[in-house]
Design a protein that fits this description.
- The protein is mainly α.
- The protein is built from 7 helices and no strands.
- 75% of the residues lie in helices and 0% in strands.
- The two termini are 23 Å apart.
Length: 95
């Protein structure tokens, strides 16, 4: 988990430079959602469902359903597109 949290912290300054962080959330939860998607081969709707179904995944992402909902598939999609556009391009997802 330490590696994932350190990686998620890397996203925050990168996104705030683009000035679009508020529009998509751009939080550590958004970044760790992307890690879950990659590790478990989850689509946007599947990662949303997994966060509601799995206490372990919610704990990893840092979501307490008593305080906040899990990010919906649209939020996950917008965050990924923001990263593709401003940071990585499509080369990250290709291999």
């Amino acid at each position: 988990m330490c590696v994932a949290r350190a990686g998620a912290r890397w996203f925050e300054p990168q996104l705030s430079q683009g000035g679009e962080r508020a529009a998509t959330g751009g939080s550590r939860a958004d970044a760790t959602n992307l890690l879950l998607q990659q590790w478990f081969n989850l689509s946007d709707p599947a990662v949303e469902e997994a966060l509601y179904d799995s206490a372990g995944m919610r704990q990893f992402v840092g979501i307490d359903l008593g305080c906040e909902p899990a990010p919906d598939e649209t939020t996950v999609c917008k965050f990924r597109h923001l990263l593709e556009e401003h940071i990585w391009g499509n080369r990250f997802w290709e291999g």
